Amino acid sequence: MHLPGPVPKGGETRLRIIKTYTDAASYYLKDGQLVFVRPLGIKRNVVVLPKGWELIQCDSPGIVSTDADGRVRVSFVNDRDDQLPVKITARRLP
Predict the structure, then answer these.
(1) Is the pLDDT of residue 32 over 80?
(2) pLDDT score for 59
(3) Distance from the CA of 54 to the CA of which of 11, 30, 80, 89 falls in 20 to 30 A?
(4) What gap in Å lies between CA 70 and CA 24, rounded to an integer?
(5) What pLDDT does residue 3 have?
(6) Would the pLDDT of 25 be above 90?
(7) Does 24 score more than 70 pLDDT?
(8) What pLDDT score was predicted for residue 1?
(9) Which residues have C-beta within 8 Å of that of residue 61, sequence separation ≥ 6?
(10) pTM of the prediction?
């Protein structure tokens, strides 16, 4: 990581860490629907659906938006002291 400049003694700076990971145990197909189930422990998370899929259910509060390429993304803020349980269900677009 490269900072734009030195951080002064007693000062602070903000960093955005972007991490992409896959966890095959967290998602599966059931009756033709894509299901994602995973507790999210960090404060901010984004789940991006595969291209050609639409969101039909989200069991935790999230902000739904669309990427420039048309993929649906669901952003979560975990303001809890424990993990946020998340379950997302999606279906293929016709």
Answers:
(1) yes
(2) 95
(3) 80
(4) 23
(5) 78
(6) no
(7) yes
(8) 66
(9) 76
(10) 0.75
CB environment 26-49: b (16+ within 10 A), e (fewer): ebeeeeeebebebebeeeebebeb
Angle value at C-alpha 34, between 36 and 52, nearest 5 degrees: 120
| Residue with token string 């039909």 | 56
CA distance 93 to 51: 9
Question: CA end-to-end span of the chain, whole Å?
Answer: 43
Give alpha helix (H) positions in 1-94: none
Alpha-carbon distance 62 to 15, whole Å?
23
CA distance 90 to 56: 5
Which residues 6+ apart lie within 8 Å of 74 measured at CB? 46, 47, 49, 55, 58, 62, 63, 64, 88
* Amino acid making up residue 9: K
Q: How far apart are CA 57 and CA 15, in angstroms?
A: 32
User: Hey, what amino acid is at 28?
Assistant: Y
Of 20, 30, 10, which is closest to residue 90 (Cα–Cα)? 30
